[in-house]
Design goal:
By secondary structure, the protein is mainly α. It has 35 helices and 4 strands. The longest helix has 19 residues.
Length: 659
């Protein structure tokens, strides 16, 4: 597939040379180069430029769709493939990839339609058969999977992925000999095929060939030392071989690569409990509870640990949570009974004991395996193996959606000084460059270049001293110049001298009551001063989202007085109602106050004025997730990622993947 894409690029470039003022071949080639190197956000950036300059070309939508798909933005990818097919309905590659994306979006019927349409156009394309076979495999239609993979291998007998996928299908059909033969062939065709060793190791593990599995996992790690799933698999293998310390080391390595991997935290907690490392085990369980608050086994096993540590009240709380999640949890009732007994509450102990025994009696008369498992202490303390959907969370090669990030609102925009040519060029490349700031630069009389930023743009203190000294001399001659005082305010803000900055903005406003930019920067300076005065916490009252799909941490505060800041933003909006960043900034303050619906309305207005303001899409998405409006949020996240907000892909991974 990638080879075909590069071949089509040559023809594409020949067709578009000289088209529009933008150097389209340059950006197409740049996008393709980034795509081939796994630099997906950079590819999207370059392809955005092509699409904006030439929106009727179908290829850029296709390539951008691949980049979004690679970042986990399946909905955004589908939209790009849709647009590509509107422009070129017979483009088989777009049908092929849209089929894969639609399957991931749980729209299997449409996925199969796309696969069939792609095969009608390209009946000899082995890749389409392979991917449809993988789709069948994921839906446990193993015989159909084998049939498609057989067809692929008739067309291309050296297709290593086809052998790998057929090996997994044969394994699922209990044809282990055939499965190993297929995996051996896949590895023979590509001895550097990490996934081949991983899958073969998994088959050997399931066949109790633990030494053989260990050998394959070791080879996979030599080839890819940043893949946490392989370390996890090897840890389980070490446990089967009773090499516990090595297993613990591998669990530690998984968490070094993927700190939010709850499955590994859970298994390490179980191991640490068995080794008597109760304090460390409790720390692991606490993290897992934050990530998966509705997991019954986590609640129960933390309760058992607290019970062992003689924290009976904590144990009772966790047993109660386990019972809330699974009301017929016999073992939880019996254990809670003992905890009540140790606290001297015999009445509650008796009630729980009777309830637990009643459930156990029913279980003995009932063949339901679910109930019997939750009465079996060996099941409850067993290390979880391959049942969980353990995803490859490598952040290598552009897969930034897997990187653990601190999620907070994108910060407010303010006007800053572009003090040298390199800063000026960087600003124009990476920040919204709007006509009004350009007009202000041309009219300010000082030949100063101001720009727009929402990142810290600090300037060396000695440089600021020279600028301020120069402006002081100027202001002594022209003391009624508001722009001069504004510049002094900007400079002081850039070295975090907030009081002097506010004083300078006050002076500028006193000389020009309609100086919108002075109100804007004064509001931002007051906000920054407020945040940094709270024990050095730059994220005071921030809106953050936790690691699970049910755990959110939003911390508004009634103790902070935002009214002077809001008053300044209101004034900016009154003076310049078409200034998108003013609405965006005010929305951020409202979000920090806990007025989430009002904040969303401000983001709506900002985006009505400037649809390409990616920060507004991102911040609105955060609040929509908190307000449980995930479908709307995911559209915003897709657009924010397209516009360069990288954290969007991490949230898409967590909140927008279909269950």
């Amino acid at each position: 597939m990638i080879r075909k894409i590069f071949l089509s690029l040559v023809l594409l470039l020949a067709l578009i040379v000289g088209k529009a003022q933008v150097n389209i071949p340059h950006f197409i080639f740049g996008g393709m180069q980034h795509l081939s190197e796994g630099k997906y956000p950079e590819a999207i950036r370059d392809l955005n430029i092509v699409i904006q300059a030439s929106p009727d070309m179908f290829e850029p939508y296709f390539y951008r769709g691949i980049a979004k798909f690679s970042l986990g933005d399946n909905k955004g990818a589908e939209m790009d493939f849709n647009r590509c097919l509107e422009l070129h309905p017979l483009y088989a590659d777009a049908l092929h990839y849209r089929a894969i994306v639609r399957d991931r979006l749980q729209d299997n019927a449409k996925a199969m339609q796309d696969y069939r349409a792609a095969l009608r156009l390209e009946p000899l394309n082995a890749d389409i058969y392979v991917n449809r076979g993988i789709t069948f495999l994921q839906h446990r239609k193993y015989l159909q999977a084998v049939s498609d993979l057989d067809s692929a291998l008739l067309l291309d007998k050296n297709h290593s992925l086809a052998y790998l996928a057929r090996g997994m299908a044969n394994h699922a059909l209990k044809r282990n000999s055939a499965a190993l033969s297929d995996l051996n062939k896949a590895i023979h065709l590509n001895i550097f095929y990490t996934e081949g060793y991983v899958k073969r190791g998994t088959i050997k593990y399931d066949s109790t060939d633990y030494e053989g599995a260990l050998e394959d996992f070791n080879t996979a790690i030599k080839l890819d030392s940043k893949n946490p799933m392989v370390y996890f698999s090897r840890a389980l293998t070490y446990l089967k071989l009773e090499r516990k310390q090595e297993a613990l080391f591998d669990f530690d390595k998984v968490l070094e690569l993927d700190p939010l991997n709850s499955l590994t935290l859970y298994n390490r907690a179980l191991m640490r409990t068995q080794e008597g490392q109760f304090k460390e085990a409790l720390a692991d369980y606490n993290k897992v509870v934050q990530l998966n608050p509705d997991n019954v086994l986590v609640a129960f096993n933390r309760a058992v640990l607290r019970h062992e540590m003689k924290d009976y009240k904590g144990a009772i709380a966790d047993y109660s949570r386990a019972i809330e999640l699974f009301p017929d949890f016999a073992r939880a009732y019996l254990n809670r009974s003992d905890a009540w007994h140790r606290l001297g509450n015999e009445k509650n102990a008796f009630v729980d004991n009777e309830k637990g025994k009643s459930i156990m009696k029913n279980i003995s008369q009932n063949a339901d395996s679910t109930f019997s498992k939750y009465a079996d202490s060996s099941f409850l303390s067993r290390v979880v193996e391959f049942e969980a959907d353990f995803r490859n969370t490598s952040a290598v090669d552009g897969h930034i959606q897997y990187q653990p990030v601190y999620v907070d609102l994108e910060r407010n925009f303010y006007i800053t000084y572009l003090y040298n040519d390199s800063v000026y060029i960087e600003q124009k490349r990476n920040s919204p460059w709007q006509k009004w700031i350009n007009d202000f630069n041309q009219k300010n009389g000082y030949k100063l270049n101001f720009g727009l930023s929402n990142n810290s743009n600090l300037i060396p203190v000695d440089q600021v001293g020279r600028y301020i000294g120069s402006m002081d001399s100027t202001l002594r001659i022209s003391e009624n110049d508001p722009v001069g005082y504004f510049f002094v305010g900007v400079l002081n803000g850039m070295v975090r001298n907030y009081n002097s900055a506010i004083e300078a903005y006050n002076q500028a406003i006193s000389l020009n009551r309609d100086f919108a930019f002075a109100y804007l920067n004064r509001a931002n300076t007051r906000l920054q001063q407020l945040e940094e005065s709270s024990d050095g916490d730059d994220f005071l009252n921030s809106v953050t989202i936790g690691g699970s799909k049910t755990s959110h941490d939003i911390t508004p505060s009634d103790e902070v007085d935002y009214s002077p800041i809001l008053k300044d933003y209101d004034k900016v909006i009154d003076l310049k109602p078409d200034l998108a960043i003013a609405w965006f900034n005010r929305g951020n303050v409202k979000a920090r106050m806990g007025a989430y619906n009002d904040a969303v309305q401000d983001y709506d207005k900002a985006l009505e004025l400037e649809e390409r303001l990616g920060e507004a899409h991102f911040n609105r998405a955060l609040l929509l997730i908190y307000l449980k409006r995930n479908e709307e949020a995911c559209k915003d996240l897709s657009r924010a990622g397209e516009l360069g907000i990288r954290n969007s892909y991490n949230l898409i991974k967590r909140y927008c993947e279909e269950e």
